[in-house]
């Protein structure tokens, strides 16, 4: 037993040294990366995850947001406990905004990565700004111009703009004191009804009904269940609101969905055909987020779907793996997931869509886009480099 413990210890130290040396090309990053090593050396994945979530926000006392995200990206190359860093980034964003909530529009533009941590940082900033401060309608009216301008900043391009709209939905839930109908109506005031942005905002509002609102496990006071969620959602009346609410409740059935069971019947309970498609979009993205470290199980989920749904499942999952993991290896891993599909149509369609995302992720970053596109075969690489902004994002 002592030999096993000693071997594990030696291996941990060896990998930790490799972990730090990965940043050697940029010596400026080494001090930041080294601060993550104590978390990395914990033997239990859950303990490491909690350690990162507690420790990383404290780095703001010494490092800026961009450097912290660079350290996270390095860590992801070595530790699955930091691969899904969405909640870690939430806490980082809330720590940033705590210094001056009035600067929320400025702070949400500071995220240091196009795809890292599934945009948890911008969500954390938007939630933290008004989480404990519900507003009157008069106060909300005065802020409407700021809400409309927030995601129009130059920092928000491509996929980051879409996730900014989603983050505003989170914010609207809190400023209305969890009045879901009112928050959804603010989405319509900020984004035109029927616009591509509106469903992202609706999703930000309704997600709060089913996900923890804080690190302490606080949840929405309605405590909706599989049985009561459809009843509440129906009270929202408008199809676009009802659909957003129902698909946000997917998390209540995540255990069965993760085995590929019940997804079809869940999504076909939507109010119209458009909402059905958005539901499959959401569930496949959500499952890939939950299964980010188990791509084989996600593959089994996709293979369990009807043939006509397999292409969408593989595509949405690959895109979510890309966004969740971030970093230079993410596109190669996402492409490998596409190729794992036994259904040739699914594999081809998945790779084609992944290539199209080069323009969406890196529309104003030609160097990064070239690196991204190089992960594909020659023909897809050419299309990746030429494509305009045509990708869509889950709501």
Summarize the structure.
The protein has helices spanning 2-21, 30-34, 37-40, 45-55, 65-76, 86-98, 104-107, 120-130, 137-150, 159-175, 180-190, 197-207, 229-234, 239-248, 254-257, 263-267, 273-290, 295-304, 307-325, 330-339, 344-361, 366-373, 378-386.
Q: Classify the helix fraction into a percent range.
A: 55-70%
| Largest sheet: number of strands, sense, barrel closure | none
Structural class: mainly alpha
Number of strands: 0
Question: What features would you describe in this structure?
Answer:
The chain has 395 residues and is an all-alpha fold. The protein has helices spanning 2-21, 30-34, 37-40, 45-55, 65-76, 86-98, 104-107, 120-130, 137-150, 159-175, 180-190, 197-207, 229-234, 239-248, 254-257, 263-267, 273-290, 295-304, 307-325, 330-339, 344-361, 366-373, 378-386. It is globular.
List keywords for this structure.
single chain, 0% strand, mainly alpha
Task: Itemize the secondary structure elements and their pairings.
Blueprint: H1 2-21, H2 30-34, H3 37-40, H4 45-55, H5 65-76, H6 86-98, H7 104-107, H8 120-130, H9 137-150, H10 159-175, H11 180-190, H12 197-207, H13 229-234, H14 239-248, H15 254-257, H16 263-267, H17 273-290, H18 295-304, H19 307-325, H20 330-339, H21 344-361, H22 366-373, H23 378-386
Helix pairs in contact: 4-6, 6-8, 8-10, 10-11, 10-12, 11-12, 12-14, 14-17, 17-19, 18-19, 19-20, 19-21, 20-21, 21-22, 21-23
